[in-house]
Amino acid sequence: MSTIHIFPFGDVDEGVLKHLCVELPKRFSNMDVVVEKPLPIPVHAYVKQRGQYLSTEFLALLPHKPGLVLGVTEVDLFVPGLNFVFGEAFLGGKVGVISLRRLRPEFYGEQPNTQLFHLRALKEAVHELGHAIGLHHCPDPKCVMHFSNSIVDTDHKEPDFCEKCSALATTLIRRLMD
Ligand SMILES: [Zn+2]
Ligand SMILES: [Zn+2]
What we know:
single chain; alpha/beta; Collagenase (Catalytic Domain); 5-stranded mixed β-sheet; 3-stranded mixed β-sheet; 8 strands; binds zinc ion
């Protein structure tokens, strides 16, 4: 059985990491999840004018491992052309990264809600790992592979693949892990 390696970039909320360890295997063919030693936040990825970090630099720094690799960071990520991203992945490249920055209700001036925060992090993690195994965006707004333009989209979708994406995910994981 293959492994999902989680690499925190800098200090990352422990509760989220624990939640991902429990919930990710249910969506990814019961793969093991291991939290690896944290990597430093790449200072060269910081763009001062925006106060944000270029997410592709985080992806490039993640070590390649057998199985899947997910970076998790608290800092705000962007890619050129978008104001921000919840995460990014190399399509079919087995590597993805997510930012927790915009997932806490406090970011939107709302009351803290750990359960909601963990659920959002799970959705973004499943989404980016979905890309990492080769899944594209799904037109079903309830499917975890639906594109999130805002936290409203994230909250609207489920933390699970739709039937079609789920069947495809199983095939892709089997192929990748051979
Ligand atoms: Zn996406
Ligand atoms: Zn789908």
